[in-house]
Design brief:
The structure holds two protein chains of two kinds. By secondary structure, chain A is mainly β. Chain A has no helices and eleven strands. The chains are: A mainly beta, B mainly beta.
């Protein structure tokens, strides 16, 4: 059974749409949950979440963690074609990372 | 989903010694494996890409003689940090993909501490 599950697996939207990406995780030894954007060579760090209910924002991107329900969401508003990428979430537990398989987002003009 | 296992998950070594990290794809054949190093503020840097049976392709600035990568089989790639120094202390993470430009599955990471 996967430790970190992301949904949807893929998503196609039009420019200007708002998208919500989901990430659920297991609780064992939870330290933090991280979101990455992967376009080319390496995932680019977006957010690290450790506390429940506190929204983190960066421009059109925002993310929040729910430690009771064991999930996190990544929101992207007013999407642009440059947002097309695979979005990964990863749970850091103890000294180990558990990555989800990612959500592939395609934004069409 | 596919499983990629890294071993060890944590290692402490003395300065000057070498450390080998293994990355295994448990239920699929990984034609391509990637090695990353995590830097402060959680950013991941791609170190090298290895294809089974051929030499790894290193990113600019990564010393190939210091970070030896071997991808001898379709299920195993190893990263050896030679003559480790404290500045090599970091998380090292691998990912593996079945075919070029398909999704990659990540290992759990190895935390290396050089004392």
């Amino acid at each position: 059974e996967d430790k970190v599950v992301q949904s949807p697996l893929s998503l196609v939207v039009h420019e200007g749409d708002t998208v919500t990406l989901n990430c659920s995780y297991e609780v064992t030894n939870f330290r933090s949950l991280l979101w990455y954007k992967q376009e080319k060579k390496a995932p680019t760090f977006l957010f690290m979440l450790t506390s429940s209910g506190i929204e983190k924002k960066s421009g059109r991107l925002s993310s929040i963690l729910d430690k009771k329900e064991l999930f996190s969401i990544l929101n992207i508003t007013a999407t642009q074609t440059g947002d097309s990428a695979v979005y990964l979430c990863a749970e850091l537990t103890g000294n180990q990372f558990y990555f989800g398989t990612g959500t592939s987002l395609t934004v069409i003009p | 989903g596919a499983v990629v296992s890294q071993h060890p998950s944590r290692v402490i070594c003395k300065s000057g010694t070498s450390v080998k990290i293994e990355c295994r794809s448990l239920d699929f054949q990984a034609t391509t494996m990637f090695w990353y190093r995590q830097f402060p503020k959680q950013s991941l840097m791609l170190m090298a890409t290895s294809n089974e049976g051929s030499k790894a392709t290193y990113e600019q600035g990564v010393e190939k003689d210091k970070f030896l990568i071997n991808h001898a089989s379709l299920t195993l790639s190893t990263l050896t940090v030679t003559s480790a120094h404290p500045e090599d202390s970091s998380f090292y993470i691998c990912s593996a993909s079945h075919r070029r430009n398909t999704e990659a599955f990540f290992g759990q990471g190895t935390r290396l501490t050089v004392v």
